[in-house]
From TrEMBL:
Source organism per UniProt: Paenibacillus soyae
GO cellular component: plasma membrane
Record-given protein name: Carbohydrate ABC transporter permease
Keywords: Cell membrane, Membrane, Transmembrane, Transmembrane helix, Transport
Main location: membrane
GO biological process assignments: transmembrane transport
Gene3D superfamilies according to UniProt: MetI-like
């Protein structure tokens, strides 16, 4: 019969510390949410701190009427899904190749690692993207993010921790590199690929600087760029919404710069916030398995 562990002061302090850290992490999202559903006048004056006041849902109805928001959501989702799939596929195969004997492997691996520490800078990057025709082009979101050195190194380390005998037995049976990768290596490295998928998806979803520098076509704007733009233009957007709501509206719940900023932020953050906890468990499993050999 297992011995029941005694609850000690260490356990109490440990649980209290983790509870406090959890509260610190969760409270900003809670604060953001209660300000989106509270009286806009009170919220703009900073009087909503711990619980909502005069609850209403007008802000969300107003925000969803913002022109281009639906198109931006589609672009963000499509960009995140396609970019994540291609990044994971490239990282998996290149990471596997770097574990095999091939011409100039050491040189190419060092060349890959160097790119993590040195880059040409913003202006050469922009000129390169311009010459490649990646301005006002959806591929500007996808192509530059496919090859990620850090992800490739993670996969390489993970593959090296798998039993080499599996690959050798497949080679004896006549399997080629692609067959070994697809039928043996790929199923074994799914934990690290899930981790990479989370990293890539969060990065793709949250990115807005590439839109800022490369995109002027409003049909290619992303949700994060919409958030960035409306954060800077919240006052004028609030005035526009006040004019479009009509006369029979409670003045206290009319749109304000604060209500626009908090509501747009919540709309943009909520999708990835709901998805992230379901995949977070892959972080520890994926990285720790590949971090220790033997």
């Amino acid at each position: 019969m297992p011995v029941k562990e005694k609850f000690t002061m260490f356990h109490f302090v440990n649980y209290a510390a983790f509870a406090m850290i959890t509260l610190i992490c969760v409270f900003p999202f809670y604060y953001l949410f209660i300000n989106t559903i509270s009286n806009n006048d009170l919220s703009s004056r900073g009087l909503v701190m711990f619980y909502p006041k005069d609850i209403h849902w007008t802000n969300y109805a107003d925000v969803f009427r913002i022109p281009g928001l639906g198109q931006a959501a589609l672009i963000s989702v499509f960009r995140t899904v396609l970019g994540t799939v291609l990044t994971v596929a490239a990282s998996a195969f290149l990471g596997y190749l770097f574990t095999k004997q091939m011409w100039g492997r050491s040189f190419w691996y060092r060349f890959l690692v160097i790119t993590m520490y040195f880059n040409a800078g913003l202006i050469p990057w922009y000129l390169t993207m311009l010459q490649l025709g990646l301005t006002n082009n959806f591929l500007a979101y996808i192509l530059p993010a496919i090859v990620q050195p850090f992800f490739i190194i993670l996969v390489k380390t993970f593959v090296e921790s798998t039993p080499l005998a599996l690959q050798e037995s497949a080679q004896i049976d006549g399997a080629g590199i692609l067959t070994i990768f697809a039928k043996i290596i790929f199923p074994l490295i799914t934990p690290i690929l899930a981790t990479i998928a989370i990293f890539s998806a969060v990065t793709q979803w949250n990115s807005f600087t590439d839109t800022l520098f490369l995109i002027t076509d409003q049909n290619l704007f992303t949700l994060q760029f919409i958030l960035y733009r409306y954060m800077n233009e919240a006052t004028s957007i609030a005035q526009l919404m006040k004019q479009s709501t009509g006369a029979m509206v409670d003045i206290s719940n009319m749109a304000t710069p604060t209500s626009i900023q908090t509501t747009v932020s919540m709309v943009v953050v909520l999708p990835i916030l709901l998805v992230y906890p379901f995949f977070q468990r892959f972080f520890v499993k994926g990285i720790m398995i590949g971090a220790v050999k033997g």
